[in-house]
Amino acid sequence: MKKSRIVILLIILFFLIISIRLFFLGVIKHETYQKKLAEKTNVTVLGLSAPRGRILDTNGKIIVDNIGINTIMYHKIKGITTKEEIAIARRLGKILNVGQPSTQVLKDYWLVLNDGNLLITEEEWQMVEERKLTTNEIKEKQYERITEDMLDYSLEEQKAALIYSLMNEGYNYQKKVILNKASDAECALVAESNLPGITIEMSWQRHYVYGDTMKSVLGSVGPIAREEKNNYLTQGYEITDIVGRSYLEKEYEEYLKGEKAVYQVNKDNTLTLIKEAQRGKDLVLAIDIDIQKQVEATLEDKIMLGKKSFANTEYYKESYAVVSNPNTGAIIALAGKRLNQDGTFTDVATNNINTSYTIGSAVKGATIAVGYKYNLITMDKYITDGCVKLYAVPAKCSHKSLGRINDLTALAQSSNYYQFLIAIGLTGNKYYPNLKLNATAEHFQIYRDTLANFGLGAITGIDLPGEVAGIKGAAIADDLLLNLAIGQYDTYTPIEVIQYVNSVASGQRYQLALMQKIISDESIIKTNKPKVLNDIDLSSEVLERIRLGMSKVLSEGTGKGYVDVSLNPVGKTGTSQTFIDNNHDGVMETATVSSAFAGYFPKDNPQYSVVVITPNISHRNGRSEAMYYGARRMTNEITNFLAQYNPHSEN
């Protein structure tokens, strides 16, 4: 009896637990499990595309926007037959200009319209049953036996074949793009046709408000590249998505990409919009588009005028200019222009980050630092300018005899001799004719470390993919050490040169940046904070000495006339010799001359830094005034504009 009571109590307890559990699942957790069920059974699809975020300049002017384009779409309706889809495709083929299908598409279409099994012999079917042929091999034989005569379709039927193929790509529940950039007339005819599953939707493409202005730096958008497919797919992209392919569009893809509309797929395969498309976040640049336009216009004007006005400029095709804020590293303008044979210009601004040049004496503001740092020169001590004759090397001199010079006038008058003596002293030698320096890799490294401390020969960190450092010469030789000291050995990109100028101005090496902030509906998502990569490894007294010497460059030295002296500018000019392969035979046979300027203003409260580089502006076989004209006139016009510029005025 006692035992039966225990059994009854256990049974009651069991049903009580079951009842409580059912109540918990059916009442308390009802909504939770309903939601989980919906997540498992509901199918959603994404819309075609979403507008990307805009790109704006520092003053809020739109540089890159989106424009809507008409797109003909197809969404398969539940229960639709192949015959009905062919009828839709044929109707659209009479309306739309969709181009020509491939042979493969035409063969697929033939197999839809005809019985492909008739192309296979009884013996081959028997071999399939005997597993001597696979179904894939049978398919290949069908394709092989469809002749060109069998594909002799009319133009409209060919278009129908392509449209039918597009209608059946991917999953059944996905929307299919039939035609992008459909004309208004095409859209009107499609709308009138009222074809099942066919809709006209808006997709987006990039609109460059200022045409080709800095277009190369803005970058491009396009389909996902094959080599990047897996990376994008793991991030949730679809293989048909449009993404940033280069430069700013690629660098800030995660912010610029929009969020597609989301549709619920209903039981009858129709769609219900559950979330509208959202535009991507806006990228605000430090670029001032009005300054950018003026700098580009100056380059074009002076390149064209220089080519017309001076002889021996046949190898001169392009010039570069960069404007920055020396206190933050923000890039205000980044320009490069190349003159084409037909008289038009191509934007080559990206060469500022991925192509390097020999810039000559413009680097002396950094190389003279070796003398100060290693106590190889004495401030205000005068020497007489001259030439250096090393063993088995022709004499090396300044561009002219400069007479009595000290550290300041050596910069102002661009004395090579003064820099040579610093390099000689670094090796532990005192100069005498036919001296053997026995320069080592360590001596070269000391110079390169000093230059890199300012940003020359180092990655600047600019927010653009594809940046390269300049090229370091591989050979170690006595005369090459002297060349390195005057900027005639290693090469540097224009943005390395602007970082060097900024470092002289501020005493710190700032990372360069185009991005100012990322915004969404006026809310700031991300702000670029100036980043110091390193302090300049010199005392404040030495830095001020370098600045003073470089200010004398523009007031009384080689850079006189480059910048209005009333702006209290600081800078350094440079000329360099390089060799080019003008016959494209692999032999560098022609010596060309390039000119450069690097500077900032005003000296005591830096507002703008400017770099101008004009490669191959003249050649040694017949030098012309163009080599002085190029960088000087460009620099003068750009700095005058900057000095008078008011961003709030009407331009």
Q: How would you portray this structure in words?
A:
- This protein is of the alpha+beta class and 651 residues long.
- The protein has 3 domains: 112 residues, Penicillin-binding protein 2a (Domain 2) (Alpha-Beta Complex); 95 residues, Penicillin-binding protein, N-terminal non-catalytic domain, head sub-domain (Arc Repressor Mutant, subunit A, Orthogonal Bundle), CATH 1.10.10.1230; 340 residues, Beta-lactamase.
- The chain is built from 22 helices and 24 strands.
- Strands 2, 3, 4, 5, 10, 19 and 20 form a 7-stranded mixed sheet that branches.
- Helix 4 packs across helix 7, helix 15 crosses helix 17 and helix 15 crosses helix 18.
Gist of the model:
The protein is α+β, with helices and mostly antiparallel strands and 651 residues long. Helix content is 38%, strand content 20%.
Give the arrangement of secondary structure elements.
Blueprint: H1 2-28, H2 30-41, E1 43-46, E2 55-56, E3 62-74, H3 82-93, H4 103-113, H5 122-129, H6 135-145, H7 155-167, E4 176-179, H8 184-193, E5 198-208, H9 215-218, E6 221-223, H10 229-234, E7 242-244, H11 247-251, H12 253-256, E8 262-265, E9 271-275, E10 282-285, H13 289-309, E11 318-324, E12 331-339, E13 345-347, H14 351-354, H15 364-373, E14 383-384, E15 387-388, E16 396-397, E17 404-405, H16 407-412, H17 416-426, H18 441-454, H19 478-485, H20 494-506, E18 508-510, E19 515-520, E20 523-527, E21 532-535, H21 540-555, E22 570-580, E23 590-601, E24 608-619, H22 626-644
Parallel strand pairs: 2-10
Antiparallel strand pairs: 1-8, 2-3, 3-4, 3-5, 6-7, 8-9, 10-19, 11-12, 11-24, 12-13, 14-17, 15-16, 18-21, 19-20, 22-23, 23-24
